[in-house]
Each structure stands twice: as structure tokens, then as C-alpha cells.
Design a protein that fits this description.
The structure is a homodimer.
Chain A (H helix, E strand, L loop, with lengths): L19 H15 L3 H5 L3 E5 L2 E10 L5 E2 L2 E2 H15 L2 E13 L4 H18 L2 E10 L7 E11 L15 E4 L5 H9 L17 H11 L3 E5 L5 H13 L2 E5 L7 H10 L13 E4 L1 H13 L7 E7 L5 E5 L5 E3 L13
Parallel strand pairs in A: 5-6, 10-13
Antiparallel strand pairs in A: 1-2, 2-7, 3-4, 5-7, 8-11, 8-12, 9-11, 10-12, 13-14
Helix pairs in contact in A: 3-4, 6-9
Chain lengths: ~350, ~350
């Protein structure tokens, strides 16, 4: 791969969207200066070893707008998001820390509601919050609150995730319907004349990951939670990292009618819409049935599907075949059609 | 101690100042809902055990204004601050993660300068950055950039820090002159008709902590880096936690003339001013000479002093004796005379 240089003169919303511009910023500026290993920095969580004990570590900031929306809130996302990054890196969350950047004048009741949401999400995820920090900035220098979490976890046994172990013929599994989170946020902002009975899919995916791993660990090659940039961006990153093609069957991709309808109206590709409670897994063909069965039998995994497979061609790209026999290449997200989604 | 309740109706700047209001927020809202153990949450870093391996973990957000100032910048603070929290909790930093909340329109050159500052600080501290995240918010919804770091570290051997192990007769050591960081930031904002040849003391204190621990580990009972709220707030927290009194000799507290002068002019107590490269240690009397000698002989520890001792009275308070025979109780910081200092 040619080296990326970061030549953009200033920061735009797209640099935070998780797509092409974000990747340029990470690969062109952060990785060469901050991260020793580019590969590690781009996964969902890093692996470190401390006194011989392997540990997974990850962090995320949350700036979602509005702070509360159907199905979740910034506090819940901040816990689930970090636990999910650990889960899809093959680790069970152990401990978290949190920081708040609060805007002067924020009603305490709003902060308390988010602290309670975090508390509930921690209990559901079975993880401990062990420390934190709070800063306050003047009115107008933040937007209510920004939350950052970092987490460490213990790797699940018998799991060896690596995009380079992905082979042609491997199956691509998706845990459930796509786009619920992104479209929910879009509608919750009220800028559009659209209404739909839709909720964010915000949840901790660890129970699903554990069900999958318990049945099919030796065959699980790669996982990712398709948040910003959606399924298409996650799978394009995989295609690039393994040098193969990802071939998806559009009719197999689970999606609610409300999401499909909103995307059609707004000219958005649902494969680019953020999810907060789903994950994609690539599984060796011999383990695909076992893996799907394990997911479908776990609570919340009923809608999991095999949505495609890995092929030699088109190399480094994601191809979606429609039910009418057509096909299209779906690239990573470019620009930022839905800012501040998480 | 009576239970604290958080009844403030909205967030004020003082809730981020590290003093009384911050403590009310942490003890009244965050600790009961988020942190299992109040004690742990209020230290500089938490201790967790993963598969039998003890690990220290900490996090901090940085919103300092301006982003650059004599002697340092937000990027350098973000690395040193988290490494220092680990160091004074008795741990050597091992790995860090970082998130950026960037304001749309931020010139890339400003971001790059901070990434380079972080890179240099990482190299000096001998720690690896293993991952990160970036979010972008609209113009006016941040102030250039906010940085959050989290770090994990390995406990130094033979060190058992606990405020409850502090006894009357123990000596209080300070690593160097106080107030340089806070006053530098104040002057760098240019709101005052004041000039002084002063630089932030931003640095990684781990080498000093290690020098101290190597010579005097069995006698080292407690350490803290007196950032927001200054030496007075840190020592008031200790006094409260151990139920004893901390008696300081004002003339022994190292301080530059420029800091003394600015504080006098502005009516500030230098004991409330933030430091970013100092720490306070409480050491058993038998080890005090060894400890001081170790610090004075380490590069950057030449100005370390014994500034006072622990006494039975005044219980739960900090008493400062002046060179003229007078004395005054110095409380924790109240209000926020210097907002966004780190």
C-alpha cells in the first residue's frame, strides 16, 4: 500500500466521520507520530502484554447530538461502545475509566440522567468503572457534555483474530439489522419532516460474541462493530487489510423497513449508516453453520444472517449483488452525511 | 464522615477546578452511581487485578487554554499528566490511549504541533501509545481541541501507598517549586498587565518517583501530584483521609519570586495554584533523610525539600506556620480562580 500523507489544511466534520477522511488523518498523522504499529492502531482495541498477562485496551470519545434519543443516550453509548470495541477484538471487558467535559450551565439533572444510564449499562455489561476525571468549559465551548471512556479487557480463550487469516470462501456474518442507530439519531434531531417507529440498537454485544466464540472459536477469523461509516466501511477496511474481495448479497442484509425507507428518501446507503449494537464476523466455511446457529439461539441474535462471503475478486473492495442480478462496488464512507452520530 | 449529596442545580466552572465543588460532584454523584469503591475513585489511579497481574489505571481530560504556553502545550500535558497520575500511584506507565475532540476549522498545523508534542513526551516517558479515537464537532462547539488520555501501568515493587498508613511524625516532602504551571497559564492568556520570566513545570515525574522509591520504598506512605487545586487541596484530601493534621513551614516551601509576586498582586494563595511537574510525598521519619537525599541527587529534584510534617492536630486540616511565628489554616480550593488550567 502507498503511504498516506495528511495534507488537508484544516479539520472538517468528515475527519470525525469514521470514513475516508478519518483514515487519512489516522494513517497520515496519528499513526506515524503516535502509534508504533499502524496495524494495531486501526483495530478496535490494542493488545498489550503486562508481566506476561495479555490485555486488550481501547478508548472512544462520544459527542452524539442529541444527548438522548429513542433507545439510548450518550451515557449508555459511552459504556457499550467501549465494551463492544473490546468484544469484537475478542476480549471481555474488565475495567473502565471515564472523563466528562461539561459545558458551564449544564443542568445537573441532565448530567445525573447520563450517570444513571452509565450505571445501568455497566451493570448489564458486568464491568467495573474504576476512575474518572471531570473538566468544565465555558458556555458555548462544548455542547452539553462530551464523554470519553477507556477500557481494558481479558482476551477470550482460543480466539485468534487477524485480517491476514481471512481466506476466499470464508463467510461473512452480521448479528442483526443495520442502520437503526444512525437513522434514529437523524430523526431525533427533528431537522427532517420524517417520523418512524425506530430505536437505536445500542447494546453490549459481548453476550453474542461469547455465544459465537463458544461454538466456533477456531473458525472465527475477524470481527468488527460497524459504527461510524457502517458495515461498508468496516468491510472495506477488511478487504484492504486482507487484499481480497468481500461479496455481499443485498437481499440477505437484515434491515428494517423504516431504515430502508429513510435511506431511500435521503439518498443514503444503509451500508454507510452507523450501528451501535451489531457486529460483523468472518468465519471459516466449516464453522459457518455452527456460528450462525449459535448467534440465532442467543437472545438478541435472532436476526443474524450470513450476508456474503470472501472471494479473490474484486481485490481490496466490497461488491454488493442485488436480487435482480445487478451488482455495485460500495466504497468506504466519504464526507459526513450524519455528523455527531456517536 | 457524613455523606455528601450533590444538590447544585447546574454545572459551574468550579466543578472542574479540582477543589471543593469537584469533590462534591465526585462524592455526591459519580462515586455512588459509577464507582464501586469511593476510596479508589479519588486516588490518582485505580488498582485492578487481571488474571493475577496487578495493574494501575487512570484517565484525564485536558481543556487547557491557551493550547500552547511557555514550557509546554496541551499535547505534552496530556501525556505527562496521565503518566504522573500513574507515577504518584506508585506505578510505571506501560501503555496509553488518546482521544481528540476537534473543532471544525482547526488548522491542521495546530493539531500536528500537538501530535508532535505528544510524540516527544511519549519518547521521554518511555511509554507506548497503542490506540485512539477522533471526533469532530461543529465550529463553536469546542475550543480548538480537547484531548483525553488513559493509561495503564505496572506497580513499582515494595511500595505500599495508603493514606491510612500515614502517622504523626511522618515528613512531608515536595519535589520542587510550586505554582509555575498555573501562573504561567494565567500570564499566557494575556488578560493581565503582568509579565514574568516563567515556564510551566510540565514534565514526567516518574524518574523522581523512582529515585525516591529506590532509596526509601518501605518508608513511602503516600504520594500525590498537586495539579488543579494545588498543594493545599492535595494535602487537605490527605488530612481528611487519614484523620490527622498536616503542618507546613511556609519558609520551606520552594517558590519562585515571579510566582510569589503574581500571587500577592492577584490575591491568590500559591498553595492553591496548579502544578504539572511536582509531587508531594509523605515519608516515615526514619526514611526522610534518605528520601530527600535521593530526590536532591536526581536530575530535576535539586529543589526538593521537607516542607512539613504530620501531626495529631489540627485533625483533618492543613496548618501553615509563617516565618514570623503566625499560622493559618489553608483549606481546599473553593471556586475557580483559574479556569481551564489543564
Amino acid at each position: 500500500m502507498p503511504k498516506v500523507r495528511f495534507r488537508d489544511s484544516q479539520i472538517e466534520m468528515a475527519h470525525g466521520a469514521g470514513g475516508k477522511a478519518s483514515r487519512r488523518l489516522v494513517e497520515g498523522l496519528f499513526a506515524p507520530l503516535l502509534y508504533g504499529s499502524l496495524q494495531e492502531s486501526l483495530g478496535d482495541a490494542a493488545r498489550v502484554e503486562m508481566n506476561g498477562t495479555p490485555i486488550a485496551m481501547t478508548t472512544d470519545s462520544f459527542v452524539v447530538k442529541p444527548l438522548r434519543f429513542p433507545g439510548g443516550s450518550i451515557g449508555e453509548l459511552a459504556v457499550n461502545g467501549t465494551m463492544n470495541d473490546l468484544a469484537v477484538a475478542g476480549a471481555r471487558g474488565h475495567s473502565m475509566v471515564v472523563t466528562f467535559v461539561l459545558e458551564e450551565g449544564l443542568p445537573s439533572s441532565i448530567l445525573e440522567a447520563e450517570v444513571r444510564a452509565m450505571s445501568n449499562a455497566l451493570r448489564r455489561a458486568g464491568v467495573a468503572m474504576v476512575g474518572g476525571d471531570t473538566k468544565v468549559v465555558e458556555r458555548g465551548k462544548a455542547d452539553g457534555m462530551y464523554i470519553t471512556t477507556a477500557g481494558i479487557g481479558i482476551p477470550l480463550p482460543d480466539l485468534h483474530l487477524n485480517p491476514r487469516s481471512v481466506h476466499p470462501g470464508d463467510k461473512v456474518l452480521l448479528s442483526g439489522p443495520i442502520g437503526d442507530h444512525g437513522i434514529t439519531i437523524l430523526l431525533a434531531r427533528g431537522d427532517l419532516e420524517l417520523e418512524a417507529d425506530l430505536r437505536s440498537d445500542s447494546r453490549c454485544v459481548l453476550p453474542l460474541v461469547e455465544a459465537l466464540v463458544q461454538e466456533a472459536a477456531p473458525g472465527v477469523r475477524w470481527m468488527r462493530d460497524p459504527t461510524r461509516g457502517g458495515v461498508a466501511t468496516s468491510l472495506n477496511e477488511l478487504a484492504r487489510d486482507c487484499g481480497l474481495g468481500i461479496s455481499l448479497l443485498e437481499e440477505e442484509i437484515p434491515m428494517r423497513d423504516a431504515v430502508r425507507g429513510a435511506c431511500e428518501l435521503l439518498g443514503l446507503d444503509p451500508l454507510h449508516i452507523a450501528n451501535e449494537g451489531q457486529f460483523v464476523a468472518v468465519v471459516a466455511p466449516d464453522f459457518a453453520d455452527l456460528a450462525l446457529h449459535a448467534l440465532n439461539n442467543a437472545p438478541g441474535g435472532e436476526d443474524a444472517r450470513v450476508i456474503g462471503e470472501v472471494r479473490k475478486e474484486p481485490a481490496n473492495a466490497v461488491l454488493v449483488s442485488t436480487r435482480y442480478g445487478g451488482s455495485r462496488i460500495v466504497d468506504m464512507l466519504a464526507g459526513d452525511p450524519l455528523p455527531r452520530i456517536c
